[in-house]
Amino acid sequence: MEYVCPLCNGLKMVDITCPQCQTNMEDRGKVMDLFDDYSPYIEIEGLKQIDGIQNDQQNHQCPHIFVCSECGKDVMHIEKEWKQ
Fold first, then answer.
1. Surface-to-core class of residue 55, CB atoms within 10 Å of its CB (0-12 exposed, 13-18 middle, 19+ buried)
2. Which of 2, 25, 31, 45 could be a cystine partner for 63, CB 3.0 to 4.6 Å?
3. How wide is the angle at C-alpha 79 spanned by C-alphas 74 and 84, nearest 5°?
4. What is the average per-residue pLDDT within 62-83?
């Protein structure tokens, strides 16, 4: 069975408020895409084995980075993947 991230695939939007200045934060994509220039082209399940986030592969979770355009604070949001 395949799982997909609803955020990565535009199936859902999440509003996250900056804990520092209360501004709406922007989704900058998967945490793994920020590792290096080639990360966006590597198989997601393979990157989950080395991303340092415990059990994200087994729990079918997709970690995203949200950034505040006002103060620059970033937070990680873990999104549950959907069965396809």
1. exposed
2. 31
3. 150
4. 95
Question: What confidence score (pLDDT) does residue 22 get?
Answer: 97
Beta bridge partners of 67: 26, 74
Q: What does the DSSP assignment read for 9-54?
A: TTS-----B-TTT-PBPEEEEEGGGGSSTTGGGS-HHHHHTTSS-T
Contacts of 32 (CB under 8 A, 6+ apart): 39, 42, 44, 47, 48, 51, 63
Furthest-apart CA atoms within the chain: distance in Å: 41
What share of the chain has pLDDT > 70, as a percent?
A: 82
